[in-house]
Structure formats: structure tokens, C-alpha cells
Design a protein that fits this description.
The chain has 15 helices and 13 strands. With 407 residues, it is an alpha/beta fold. The protein folds into 2 domains: 144 residues, Alpha-Beta Complex (Aspartate Aminotransferase, domain 1), CATH 3.90.1150.10; 234 residues, Aspartate Aminotransferase, domain 2 (3-Layer(aba) Sandwich). Keywords: Aminotransferase, Pyridoxal phosphate, Transferase.
């Protein structure tokens, strides 16, 4: 394995889970379902509950501090995304955010307008949009290659025209793992007057993207998969957010952050999300160098994960009894590795647990993708997902376990 840009011991020192006695020897390979929580997030959450668990934005000190802590999260996540704070909205989950968002679009689009969805997405960024067909909206499907599960831009070009008002696509599939060319997708959509809604849930744990570079109009991710609390984060272009029908209380119509999140999540969790950005800055410090800390952290995390996934992919290429979903080159994918096996994925995951490997099997809410690839969703895949805090030793532990359970 090539030299790692991030010292694993320094990185893991910022995650209390790695000091938890019950987790010693357990290699965590289910990060796509939810990551460990960074210490700055836990510290912020604990302080809020202990010292400022009051109604925020009031006139007394504890209330003022609570509101300031929440405002800081809007500012810090916006800074990480390279956008203004008006872009940022917090909701209970990404599924809830897309549900509300699709309902807003249903009141904005006109019968005969078209939208594009994919069959590579998690159902949260697919099903909610597909329901708009009941309102007279034409729903077009950008389909994956049934052998590889990959999305090709030629497939998008074939269904993209001036009737399309929205393109909903994943930055990275939670099963295929390939990083999709969002900047090119956005450019194509904008060329016909459409906007893009990008599901970043499976990409964001590997570094929050620069939205100015991506050109996405809407970007969503789940904070609990990015070392934070269990809520959803949605970045949306402010002029688009203002154009969509208000989904909140009528008297909050002029308050941008309330218009698309009618059921706001826990105040303490909102305050804690800003500490995700603090942690990313810590990653940048560990990586060294100069320049924008979020860009440095993103690059270091990406380089770390590419180095870690390469030996696993090399090993899997030699296994004739597994079918790897997505590309087998480390540079074009996230370290979310899904395997189609003769046995149900969950069955093999249970055996891996005996080796101290925490993994999972199933359809992971990507039923349409598996059906397109000829895989029974009830059979599912074995998914092995990790992030920058995974160690080379854990990769070795995983490979040894696979060698026993997939001879």
C-alpha cells in the first residue's frame, strides 16, 4: 500500500468510538449506513443539551447562545460547500427533505413539464420525484447499464430536452460506488433550462464538495453519515428556494430557512452540525499544506481512501465467485464496495461478524437498481463500506475474513 496522507492514529484520536472497549478488534465496514461521530460534534451536542437546552433566538443569555450556535452551523456548512449561508436548510432526514422538496416542485411545475430521475438512486431521490406523475408531470428514467450499474451521459442526452425542468441524480450510488460527473450533468441540465437535485448522501462522507465547482442547484446529504448527528442537510440555490411554493407556516413565508423545512429537527443537532466543518479543518491540519482547508481535507480523504481500497479491489479481481458492482479502479469510485454473491448478502455479512468485521447485506433502498441488474432485492448484495479513518490493518482483516467465507 502506498504511503497514506493521513496518519490513522491521529485521525482516530478524534473519534471516541475507537476508544470504546466493546468495539476493540471490530473493523467497521458499514460506514455507508452511518459513520462514527467525531468528538467535536459530540462535545457540541453535549454542551447544547447541558447549557442551552432552551428555546433559541430569545432575549436571555442561554437562549441567545443557543441561537448563535445554530446560526454558526448554517455558516460553517455553507463555508465548507463554498456557498452563502442562505443556501443551507436542515431537516429531520434526507428522505424527509426530498419529500418536502418534491411536494414544493409539484406546486411549481406545470402539467406537461418533464423531470428526469435515475434507477441508480436510493429511493429517497427517486420515489418522491416519481410521485409527481400523478400531478401530470412527465417522468423520464435515466437508466443504468444492466451489467455494470453505471450511468452513461449518452443515456442522459437521449432523454434531455427543453421540456425537462429537473434532473435528479446521485453524486455517488450507495451500491455502485462510482462517482458520477455532477458538473457535466449540471451543465447539460442548465443548457436546456433545467435544475439539478443531487443526492450526495453516499459522496459527502468522503469530503463535502465545492458546490460552485459542481454547479448543482440542490445538494442533499445525511449528517449522520458524515460524522455528525442524525439529520438531513439540504443546500439549495436561494433564488430557486424563493421561487418554490412555501411548505412551512404561512407567516414564515419570508424566512428562507423555514420555507422548505416545515418540521425542523432538534435544535441541539442543528448546532452540532457545524462541528463537522470543524473536524474537516482538523483533517486539513493533519494533512498539512496550505490553501482552503476544506479542499485540502477533501483531497487528503480521497487520496487516503483510494490507497486503502486499491488492495481490496486487487483481491476481488481474483475471486471468480463474486460479481463486483461498479468500476474496479480505485480512482473512479468511493470505497463503497458491493458484491453480488450466490448467497444473500446478509447471510455472508453474518458470517463475517465472527471475524470481527462489521458489514451488512440487503438492497439498501436501491431496489430499482438491483432489479435493473437482474438481482433479486430480497437476495441483495454484500456491502463493504469504509472511510478515511479505516486502517490498512482493517483492510487486511477484511480480506482474511473474505478468504475464509468466500473460498
Amino acid at each position: 500500500m502506498t504511503a497514506l496522507p493521513l496518519d490513522p492514529s491521529r485521525i482516530r484520536a478524534h473519534f471516541p468510538a475507537f476508544a470504546e472497549p466493546s468495539l476493540v478488534g471490530q473493523a467497521f465496514f458499514e460506514n455507508a449506513g452511518g459513520s462514527y461521530t467525531a468528538r467535536p460534534v459530540l462535545d457540541t451536542l453535549e454542551h447544547f443539551y447541558r447549557a442551552t437546552k432552551v428555546q433559541p433566538y430569545g432575549v436571555y443569555p442561554a437562549s441567545i447562545e443557543a441561537g448563535e450556535a445554530m446560526n454558526r452551523s448554517y455558516e460553517r456548512i455553507a463555508e465548507a460547500f463554498n456557498v452563502d449561508p442562505d443556501w443551507i436548510h436542515f431537516g429531520p432526514s434526507t428522505s424527509a427533505n426530498t419529500y418536502v422538496l418534491a411536494n414544493a416542485f409539484g406546486g411549481w411545475l406545470k402539467p406537461g413539464d418533464a423531470i428526469i430521475v435515475t434507477n441508480q438512486d436510493h429511493e429517497a431521490n427517486s420515489g418522491n420525484w416519481r410521485r409527481l406523475a400523478a400531478r401530470g408531470i412527465e417522468v423520464r428514467e435515466w437508466q443504468v447499464d444492466p451489467q455494470t450499474g453505471r450511468l452513461n451521459l449518452t443515456g442522459l442526452d437521449a432523454i434531455l430536452d427543453a421540456k425537462v425542468r429537473l434532473v435528479a441524480a446521485p453524486h455517488c450510488s450507495n451500491i455502485v460506488g462510482e462517482i458520477n460527473p455532477v458538473a457535466e450533468i449540471s451543465a447539460r441540465a442548465h443548457a436546456v433550462g433545467a435544475v439539478t437535485a443531487i443526492d450526495g448522501v453516499s459522496y459527502a462522507p468522503h469530503g463535502l464538495p465545492d458546490l460552485a465547482e459542481l454547479g448543482a442547484d440542490i445538494y442533499l446529504f445525511s449528517a449522520y453519515k458524515v460524522y455528525g448527528p442524525h439529520l438531513g442537510v439540504m443546500a439549495i440555490r436561494p433564488e430557486l428556494a424563493r421561487a418554490l411554493p412555501n411548505q412551512g407556516h404561512y407567516f414564515n413565508d419570508a424566512k428562507l430557512r423555514y420555507r422548505l423545512t416545515p418540521a425542523g429537527p432538534d435544535h441541539a443537532q442543528i448546532a452540532a452540525v457545524g462541528a463537522i466543518a470543524d473536524y474537516f479543518e482538523t483533517v486539513a491540519e493533519i494533512a498539512g499544506g496550505t490553501g482552503n482547508p476544506f479542499a485540502r481535507a477533501r483531497k487528503a480523504m480521497r487520496d487516503q481512501e483510494t490507497a486503502l481500497v486499491r488492495p481490496l479491489l486487487d483481491y476481488l479481481r481474483g475471486k471468480n465467485n463474486v460479481r463486483l458492482v461498479g468500476p474496479d479502479d480505485a480512482e473512479s469510485r468511493a470505497p463503497t464496495i458491493s458484491l453480488i454473491l450466490s448467497e444473500p448478502g446478509a447471510t455472508v455479512a453474518a458470517r463475517l461478524a465472527k471475524h470481527g468485521v462489521m458489514a451488512s447485506g440487503g438492497n439498501f433502498y436501491a431496489v430499482r437498481l438491483l432489479e435493473a441488474m437482474g438481482v433479486d432485492p430480497n437476495h441483495g448484495v454484500l456491502r463493504l463500506s469504509f472511510v478515511h479513518y479505516t486502517t490498512p490493518e482493517e483492510i487486511t482483516q477484511l480480506i482474511a475474513a473474505l478468504d475464509v467465507e468466500l473460498p
